[in-house]
Design brief:
Ubiquitin-like (UB roll), 2 domains, five-stranded mixed beta sheet, two-stranded antiparallel ribbon, 30% strand
Length: 132
């Protein structure tokens, strides 16, 4: 568990006033904070920093689709990398896991509504249509 408290100093930068996290992650956090100070100061590179933070968090965004409706990439479900289809179904609602008949998947890797197995590992920006 990571707990970080920030305070703004008189130069407009943020300081870590207290943090608790495993020893191996301290270097990553210090690097992120340092980069954030630089990118904020020069006003460039925030998109790169956001992408790096997202990558280090090891999460994915999965979108759900209603049956018979067009794909809308709004309000993703945020899950851990390595999450399977059945894990995502349970995360959304425990009855989804119990009653799931099948699911269809759309993504940038070539899936265009194909049925996928319950143990299929989801990727960032996948769109899933659950059939329960």
């Amino acid at each position: 568990m990571l707990t970080v408290y920030f305070s703004e100093n008189n130069e407009g930068f943020f300081n870590i006033t207290e943090f608790m996290l495993p020893e191996k992650n301290i270097l990553i956090i210090n690097c992120i904070i340092y980069c954030l100070k630089i990118f904020t100061y020069i006003g460039e590179g925030m998109d790169i920093l956001k992408r790096e933070i997202f990558t280090h968090l090891k999460i994915i965004r999965v979108y759900t689709k209603k049956i018979g409706k067009p794909i809308e990439k709004k309000d993703p479900v945020v899950l851990k990398q390595g999450t399977t289809l059945i894990d995502a179904a349970e995360y959304i609602h425990k009855d989804f896991k119990k009653n799931l008949r099948f699911a269809r998947l759309w993504n940038e890797s070539g899936y265009t509504g194909q049925k996928v197995e319950k143990n299929h590992i989801l990727n960032d920006r996948d769109v899933v249509e659950f059939h329960v």
